[in-house]
């Protein structure tokens, strides 16, 4: 019998990060998923001004998926004129088409918020986003009124929501609130903060969730929202 191929997940980094930085910060996760799933990270289209922690002459500038103000972003801001989202959706669609096929998405922080929007579009039948599931770490719903349509209807796409109880950047209630926008969310809590956890307990939860989508396995039925 042929070996089952690993799942392929398109990975979306957080605000002020990049594909390279996400790869650097997911070493433990990639090791935990070895042989089961592989992550392919892409850069957001919008470059940000270098901050004090960035190398101004480096070749890996910080990036973002959209802005709540001119060149800035705050997750809790109800931005009247958010900018840059359409370009980012096009970037994700292009990556799925050019580097696919992909089975699902993995997003962190602002990248997870974007992945949730992609899930909403996919659930409505948007052919640009052929993914079957998403893993959303430290995710949140955009507060911008212009983005409200993404959350208007329950999102019927399987998701694993990873929530840090002590996350000081994206507070746990924000991530739980987004999870309730999905029809059958699985919520994984961990005691840490704003990072992608990969300790044995989280590894087990990741693998159990991803097992549902392995080629030849078929998707298991789920009774509804579940907490692990």
Mind explaining what this structure looks like?
The structure is a single chain. By secondary structure, the chain is an alpha/beta fold. Helices cover 27% and strands 18% of the residues. The chain contains 6 helices and 9 strands, in the order βααβββαβαββαβαβ. A 7-stranded parallel β-sheet has the order 2-1-5-6-7-8-9, with helices on both faces. It starts with 6 loop residues before the first strand and ends with a strand.
The share of residues in helices is: 25-40%
Q: Distance between the terminal alpha carbons, to the nearest Å?
A: 33 Å
User: Which strands sit side by side, in order, in the main sheet?
Assistant: 2-1-5-6-7-8-9
Weakly predicted, low-confidence segments: 218-228
For the report, how would you describe the main beta sheet?
7 strands, parallel
Q: Mean pLDDT, nearest integer?
A: 91
Order of helices and strands: EHHEEEHEHEEHEHE
Q: Give me the number of helical elements.
A: 6
Strand content: 15-25%
Whole-angstrom Rg: 17 Å
Q: Given the helix and strand composition, which structural class is it?
A: alpha/beta
Topology, number of strands: 9
Shape: globular
């Amino acid at each position: 019998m042929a070996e089952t191929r690993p799942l392929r997940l398109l990975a979306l980094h957080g605000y002020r990060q990049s594909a390279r930085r996400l790869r650097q910060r997911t070493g433990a996760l990639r090791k935990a998923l070895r042989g089961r799933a592989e992550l392919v990270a892409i850069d957001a289209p919008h470059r940000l001004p270098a901050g004090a922690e960035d190398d101004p002459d480096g070749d890996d500038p910080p990036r973002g998926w959209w802005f709540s103000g001119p060149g800035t972003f705050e997750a809790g801001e109800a931005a009247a004129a958010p900018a840059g989202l359409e370009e980012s959706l096009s970037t994700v669609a292009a990556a799925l088409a050019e580097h696919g096929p992909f089975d699902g998405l993995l997003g962190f922080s602002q990248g997870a918020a974007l992945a949730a929007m992609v899930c909403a579009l996919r659930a409505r039948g948007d052919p640009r986003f052929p993914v079957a599931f998403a893993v959303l770490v430290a995710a949140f719903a955009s507060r911008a009124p212009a983005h409200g349509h993404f959350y208007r209807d329950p999102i019927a796409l399987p998701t694993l929501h990873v929530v840090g109880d002590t996350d000081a950047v994206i507070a746990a209630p924000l991530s739980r609130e987004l999870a309730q926008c999905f029809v059958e969310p699985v919520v994984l809590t961990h005691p840490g903060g704003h990072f992608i956890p990969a300790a044995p307990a989280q590894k087990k939860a990741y693998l159990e969730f991803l097992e549902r989508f392995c080629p030849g396995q078929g998707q298991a039925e789920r009774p509804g929202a579940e907490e692990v």
